Every structure is written in structure tokens, then in C-alpha cells.
Amino acid sequence: MKFIIKLSLALFLISFSVFSQSLKWYTPAEGFPTAETANKMVLLDAYTEWCGWCKVMDTATYGKTAVIEELNKDFICIKYNPETDGNISIAGTSYTPEEFGKVFKVSGYPATAFFTSKGEFIQTITGYIEEAEFLTKMIPFVKSGDASKINYSSQKYLSVLDEAAKSGMNASLIIAYSIIYFEVEGDLPKALAKVNEIGKDDPLAWLAEELKNFYAAPQENRPSEKAGQKINEIMETYLKN
User: Fold this and answer.
1) What range does the domain containing 178 cover?
2) Residues 2-13, buried b or exposed e (16+ Cβ, 10 A)?
3) Same domain as 188, residue 134
4) Domain tally for the chain?
5) What is the pLDDT of residues 28-75, one digit of tens each?
6) Do residues 191 and 114 both lie within one domain?
7) Peptide bond before 140: cis, by omega within 30 degrees of 0?
8) Is the entire prediction scored with pTM above 0.85?
9) Residues near 141 by Cβ (< 8 Å), separated by ≥ 6?
10) Phi/psi of residue 113, nearest 5 degrees
11) Are both 137 and 165 inside the same structural domain?
12) What CA–CA distance (Å, rounded) separates 193 from 96?
């Protein structure tokens, strides 16, 4: 009887340990020094209280056992809310929330920023990432070293556009490429060169002209409502999944 009780207790403790496992989150002040000491890469989750997808990612991705095990093993994970946490210090440099967004290319939330163990910036991947993609694509990509020279989101989107291009290039596809080059890669010359491929007689020449003006002065020449609707329609056509 005593043996059965001890065995049951042991199984209970093991089960409790497994199911109570959680992801270890650090503040920036704690996390970066810990990463350097442990010689681990840093995953920084930039979020806001009003970001619905941030909350979904906390549960549907960061709350999953496989993700927890992977990150606790190979990464130091940091939570940072630019709207409430104030300045952040990375590799000996202090950044205001505004500077943080510009320097580390945060264009929306959730934003997952990766750094080396010494606090050297690698890449920020914006948007919700589901568990399967997180584990089978994003993390292997970052750990492989490719993230220091290839934009993850750009690579993902461009592979879809390249597949569509096998059936033939057209003006809407050219615009889709141009938008990815500009918005995701931040490569103005490449975006402009692509949109310049659209001829003046093409039905979408008007949209190409609006994009050229926008690229030249983004703050002063925001696309018209008509252009915005057409761009959304084009991007959803190719990247809806």
C-alpha cells in the first residue's frame, strides 16, 4: 500500500511539473545581462495593452508546451511595452520608446525582435505568428543565422508572389512586389524600380503614379482612398493566406 501511495505521489508531482511549466519572461533590465551570461539569443516581445493579437499570441503560441520548451532551452525571453515601460537599454545604449520603434523596425504589434547574446540586433518580425510557423519556420530561420542577412517576412511573402509569377507577370503582381520591397524590406530604390515596370497605357498606371509619389514623400503624399482600397484588394488576392 505504501508503495502504491508513493508511486501515485511521484506521478502526481511529475504531472504537476509538466502541466505547470511556463515560459520564463524577463524585463529588459534583467534579460539582456542574463542572455550575455548564459550566451543565449534574445527574443523580445514588444506589445501593447490594446493589441488583441498580442493577447492571442500569448495564449496560442507562447502558451504552448513545445514553444515553451524551445524558448526556455535556447533563448532569453523579454517582454517590453513601449507605451508603459519607458526607455529601454540595449547593449549599453538607452532608447526612448520612439527611438526603439525606429531603430528596431517596429511597424506594428505584436513585434518579435531578436538579438544576439551581446544585444546586437538581428531582425524584427511583425505580426501574429501561430505555433506551427513559429516552431517549424521562424525559430529555425533565426537559429540558422539567415536572419542577419535575409528578411523573414519578405522571404515568406516573396515566395508566394514568385509562385504566382510562374503563371505570368501583370501590373497587379508588380504592385504587390513593389509594396513588399517598400513596406517590408524598406528598400525604396527596389520598390521604385519595380513599379516603374508598369507602362503608361496599363489600366493600373494611375496606381503606379500614386505609389511613385508616395515613395518620394510618404508623409505628404499618402495614397488616396481609391488607391488604398485597390492596394488592399491586390495584397489580399496574393497574400490572403
Assistant:
1) 154-239
2) eeeeeeeeeeee
3) no
4) 2
5) 999 999 999 999 999 999 999 999 999 999 999 999 999 999 999 999
6) no
7) no
8) no
9) 147, 152
10) -105, 140
11) no
12) 35
